[in-house]
Design brief:
olfaction, mainly alpha, 3 strands, transmembrane helix, 10 helices, membrane, Rhopdopsin 7-helix transmembrane proteins
């Protein structure tokens, strides 16, 4: 139902962390450190994959695309959040809010779909190794990466347009960036169509890829168990352990954020979950792949060795 009267809203004001004012400096230092680590880690991964010819494989190509997407994903959210913490403008125009939501969703959806593509790559490599080079040739890899990026931003555009066609009756966003649910809560009407669209998109970009990954890893694990030697099983599983770790964390956070019943929502809980998938999750990608992946570690040692010799 529409509310009787409303004045068109042209600006929103973020209220994120408003109940933690005495800890703003601490939050700024912590988030700044995590942001720098995220940027540095992802840039290192992209650089290493680019310069080390041993890493010019489909698996690491998709990893470099994921790291690039994660870098821009955090860039959309964190700098403005840091500015708000140190007392810069808490407000954002309607247009800038729409742009932030569009890019945030675009990179978030792209990341979800990329993880599914990386799971398919591991499935082909382990379950069909003799045809791997034919199935996952460079043309196919480029098409897959381009397709998930295009799909991510097309779905994001549809969601952003649907949301910002609504009239808004409140300017206070109980959040630290323009996310879907906090914006819909400001609408002058019950956004039934938008809620349905959000559910459909969540099923498409979270549930469907997660189901596909579950099936893929069931087949991968069953194939690994057929390997005769324990060393062979361990070595084969190591090639997908890092990806599986990132998948569990990434889809776990996304599922909690977008499938939690609205009746259970509180501002503090939503912000804590949002901090996890906007600040912590982008950092996990370089950390997990650098700590658990020997090929990345060896490539990093080579690069550091060359620089120290020069």
């Amino acid at each position: 139902m529409k509310r009787a009267n409303y004045t068109p809203v042209r600006e929103f004001v973020f209220q994120g962390f408003s109940n933690l004012q005495e800890h703003w400096l601490t939050l700024f230092i912590v988030f700044s450190a995590l942001y720098i680590l995220t940027l540095t880690g992802n840039l290192i991964i992209v650089t290493i994959i680019r310069i080390d010819h041993h890493l010019h494989t489909p698996m690491y190509f998709f990893l470099s695309v994921l790291s690039t997407s994660e870098t821009f994903y955090s860039l959309v959210i964190i700098p403005r959040m840091l500015g708000s913490l140190v007392g810069l403008s808490q407000s954002i125009s309607l247009e800038c809010c729409g742009i932030q939501l569009f890019f945030f969703l675009g990179f978030a959806i792209t990341n979800c779909l990329l993880l599914a593509v990386m799971g398919y790559d591991r499935y082909v490599a382990i379950c069909n190794p003799l045809r791997y080079s034919i199935i996952m040739n460079w043309r196919v890899c480029v098409i897959l990466a381009s397709s998930v990026c295009a799909m991510g931003f097309l779905l994001s555009l549809a969601q952003a347009v649907a949301i910002f066609r609504l009239p808004f009756c409140n300017t206070l966003i109980e959040h630290f960036f323009c996310d879907v649910r906090p914006i819909l809560d400001l609408a002058c009407m019950v956004p039934v169509i938008n809620d349905i669209l959000t559910l459909v998109l969540s099923l498409m970009v979270i549930t469907a890829p997660a189901t596909f990954l579950c099936v893929s890893y069931v087949l991968i694990i069953s194939t690994i168990l057929k390997i005769a030697s324990a060393e062979g099983r361990k070595k084969t599983f190591a090639t997908c352990a890092s990806h599986l770790t990132v998948v569990i964390i990434h889809y776990g956070c996304a599922s909690i954020a977008y499938f939690k019943p609205k009746s259970e929502n509180t501002s503090d809980q939503d912000q804590l979950i949002s901090v996890t998938y906007t600040v912590i999750t982008p950092l996990l990608n370089p950390v997990v792949y650098s700590l658990r992946n020997k090929e990345v570690q060896n490539a990093l040692r080579k690069v550091l060795g060359r620089k120290s010799l020069s």
